[in-house]
Amino acid sequence: LLLSMFRYSTATTATGFDYGEALNKSLLFLEAQRSGKLPTNDKRVAWRGDSGLKDGYLQGVDMVGGYYDAGDHVKFGLPMAYSVTMLSWGAIQFKKEITELNQMGRMLWAIRWAYVLWAQVGDGNSDHYCWERAEDMTTPRDAYKIDANHPGSDVAGETAAALASAAIAFQSYNSSYSNLLLVHAKQLFSFADKFRGLYDDSIPSAKQFYTSSGYWDELLWAAAWLFQATNDEYYLKYVVDNAMYFGGTGWAVKEFSWDNKYAGVQILLSKVPLEGKGGAYTNILKQYQAKANYFSCACLQKNDGYNVYKTPGGLVYVREWNNMQYVSSAAFLLAVYSDYLSAANAKFTCPSGGLVQPQELLKFAKSQADYILGKNPKSMSYLVGYGPKYPTHVHHRGASIASIYVLHSAVQCVQGFETWYHRSERDPNVIYGALVGGPDKNDDFSDDRSSYEETEPTLSGTAPLVGLFSKLQDANGISGAQFIQHKTTGARPSNNTKKSEIEKILQKSLKMLRVLASKHAQSAPIEFLHSITSTWTTQEMTHYKHKVIIKNTSGKPITDLKLAIEDLTGPLWGLSPTNKKNIYELPQWQNVLNPGSQCVFVYIQGGPQAKVSVLSWK
Hints:
alpha+beta, 20 helices, 18 strands, 14% strand, disordered N terminus
């Protein structure tokens, strides 16, 4: 029996690690964590089945989908939204690298799968009393929301950041969906800012598992991402006006996580002055950047004693429970900052150790990734399924219990503990790409299912790895052209995986959503309906047939309509070209577009859709 997977033809790089393989397996972990109705045509985690199909039923809303948080079956909104922001940031900053690895389609699909816009589904206490497969769940699936009377600025702010960053990631692939995400991001940010409060005060059941330390950082985080997505000065002014009061330029931190976003805010906002776009706000933005340098120096052990703690083996160590999530986040963040500095040909100085070049930040990120993959005192990969030696007793319900396709009878709550949790044998299902909690502060590790601090994986731990591994694979000079398909043993045969990942994400996400033309959006009396009607593959190139409906939304006839169509790489029908490059007009037989009427044009190309905008009209 076979499960389709991907790797590079060169199994190892010059450093001994194949980051492309590690990236692919990280995406597999996200697929293993999916809740809801699973795809039938591209199901790579063969031992998983449908689950949580009635989530939201009692509340009268559709809450099906999203991700299970860790080794349990609760969908916690705060870490899930943070994980989406990390995936989206990776897709934005390392777009070229991920695309060359042929993984952008799966990346976008992973982002889209997350959108369950309530604060929590499932109860952590009752869930943790049971050890059962997601497909057999008998625990309550209560859903919890925030509103004006029960605020949650932290979870709403983080979700706004996730939506805004995802809007950027999707922009060149599905502009309709991107615009919809941005609308919701703005709404959520306004709600988070207007109705302030901690989400775990409104949802007490979350407090035991994901206690929030505050929401000022999430408000800054959301505004920073909205500025990136919109270039609207309102959001930049927000982070500047609230820089001191909210702690953005006051807090000097040594961690970046689902709870503490300050380092992320500081590095994201550093991009603005580095690009020379700070304008009147440059002085305050440079204060944010000073704190970004503090975090970087602390990671590099050059902060005059105020450093991040490292184990004897060189691993960043922040907390006892699931420490690897802090490792992956810090490594990802410094890889991003390295890119920002390199693009600006900039460097900075640490209190001890002198001048820091961008490459030194990437070297730190690589050291943490290499520790994860096996360059450590235990010579063990802490990414499950990677390398010859990795954890085989993962604190994960689905991995530790035989698949529903092997054991057809339901595994009940207590039975799971008695029969499966305490068994000494290795997990029956390999949960590829799961980043476990990792070793303690002395580099010691216990591959024991009951040692949840060390063997439980989380979304927030794995999500930053996708972008990080893509950057490191590119830095090693391994290109996407070497990407090949091979087979490995698994639980069930997979379906055809030859279709382009981009095709699949577009088939999933493209809907007939109305979008205004990007130019003259406020005044042009035109609406576009942009959809994909068919796809096909020839000589490993996937082609898309795009259909665009042009509709007159004014009360007057429109004549002499001129459209600008950018990034068009294939043939087009239904419009007439003008004597100017990339400018088209309606055909002569339809030179007038009457009120409420519409016309259609079609074009074919591979990759992202073309950019259509109104240039002029009469």
